Amino acid sequence: MNRKFMSYFEGVVVIHVEGKKIERFLAYLYKLNIPLLNIKYVDRRNIIIKILNRDLDKVLNMKTTYEINVTNYEGKLKLREGFRKNLFLLSSLLIGYIFLLVLSNMIFDVEVIHSNANIRNLITEELKEHNIKRWSFKQNFKGIEKIKKEILVEYKDRIEWLEIESIGTKYIVKVEERKKKPLETNYIFQDIVSTKNATIAAIYATEGEVVKRKNDYVKKGDVLISGKIMKGEEVVKIIKASGKIYGEVWYNIKVEYPLIHQSKIETGKKRDIYKVKFLDYSLSLFDFYPFKAKISNYSDIVVNPLIPFKIVLDKQREVTAEDEIYTDSEALIIAENQASEKMEEYLLEDEHVISKRKLKYYVENQTLYLQMFFKVYENIGEPRSITE
């Protein structure tokens, strides 16, 4: 068996021989010390023999009247011949697979969702700085989380929340602007105007003429405390109005909460595994007994800046995963608390929630979706210059 294996590894040639007194041909081969791996008699004039590839030239160069033809190859020769015949097909399949792999891991569009164009432009430019843009390769989960953290840290005074979701070859980016305390603006002459639609809850005017009263409904931009001092229909004096106006403002906040959460508990087992990474695909080296569940911490060993290929060290810690399943009512309570916390984070120290109520909620794909209404006591006044 070992000899046969080595013969196939070296390469075997199948030859068809035709002629009179075929035994004489075989005797020639024995004289030339050519080993015959197999002999098959077709009839008295035809045989099929198998010889090693290294002896093929000796057979073909024999001066004889026998007709000798190579009919097939075995072992590595057959593989080589098959590869040669199908080279174009194999090359096409490989190129097609690589092309498909590249396209499926490439970003064709990045959409930032926010009503403020300045915020959209800001996030778009920041994502470009982190190589999240059209015609670039997708980031893995760890990379996305790192980018989100860096943007939130850098713009902590402007951005409250950021989510980057991959849908096919497109990134959907959702962002929420952080409400910040308005800068004190000092104009020589100014009115105090409303920053949003609201019902006035309290007025604390220090300078100027109050033109709105408690419980009045006002729209964004309406003058609340005027810097123009009137006598009848005539403006007798223009001053710098000042004061604070609080109003009842209304918000709808949406939250979602999964019904199934997975908690991970470390077992204490650790090990280091080397991995080859190409795009978002990875191959573990010598990982014969992988952990069923683990926490990984990667560090780069070999990186090629020209192609998305690298070798990394994966420091693994084994964990046991346990699912926590919530009922609809339990998830609803948690989602309500999250909505309230989200609303409270938006408010300044002198502002508070007046009332709240659930508008609607439903469960879909093991996730609870909740929409809540909040009535908020909020500072709605800001100065606006009088230019007349």
Written account of the structure:
With 388 residues, the chain is an alpha+beta fold. It has helices at residues 2-10, 22-31, 56-60, 76-85, 87-104, 117-129, 141-154, 328-346; strands at residues 12-18, 38-41, 46-52, 67-74, 109-113, 159-167, 170-177, 190-194, 198-207, 209-210, 217-218, 223-226, 228-231, 234-238, 242-258, 260-278, 281-285, 294-304, 309-325, 352-364, 367-379, 381-385. It has five domains: 2-82, 2-Layer Sandwich (Alpha-Beta Plaits); 109-177, Ubiquitin-like (UB roll) (Roll), CATH 3.10.20; 190-245, no CATH class; 252-259 and 326-379, no CATH class; 263-322, no CATH class. It has eight helices and 22 strands. The strands form six sheets. A five-stranded antiparallel beta sheet has the order 11-9-15-21-20. The longest helix has 19 residues, at 328-346. The N and C termini lie far apart (106 Å).
